[in-house]
């Protein structure tokens, strides 16, 4: 079990990115979350078996139809034992 955080930059909001990411994560059996960020990026934390997480990271690098991904930042995280994938709201500033 591994966990990764990913931030996706480019034209990635308003194109169904989060909903497509949830569908792809569920297809792969990957848990975690995805959200839009106020700066226009999409951020996610994903966990599962290494092959599935790697495949989902590859998907994030391309994005769904309509998205224009200009770059991604990926970092290792400690697995939390999540069992579902969800779309969450923006982080609260402060």
Topology at a glance:
Layout: E1 2-11, H1 17-28, E2 31-36, E3 42-48, H2 50-62, E4 68-77, E5 85-87
Parallel strand pairs: 2-5
Antiparallel strand pairs: 1-3, 1-4, 2-3
Kindly describe this structure.
This protein has helices at residues 17-28, 50-62; strands at residues 2-11, 31-36, 42-48, 68-77, 85-87. With 94 residues, it is α+β, with helices and mostly antiparallel strands. It has one domain (2-87): Alpha-Beta Plaits (2-Layer Sandwich), CATH 3.30.70.100. It has a 5-stranded mixed sheet with strand order 4-1-3-2-5, with helices on one face. A hairpin with a 5-residue loop joins strand 2 and strand 3 (42-48). Helix 1 packs antiparallel against helix 2 (50-62). The longest helix is centred in the middle third of the chain and has 13 residues, at 50-62. It is globular and about 30 Å long. The N and C termini lie far apart (33 Å). The mean pLDDT is 95.
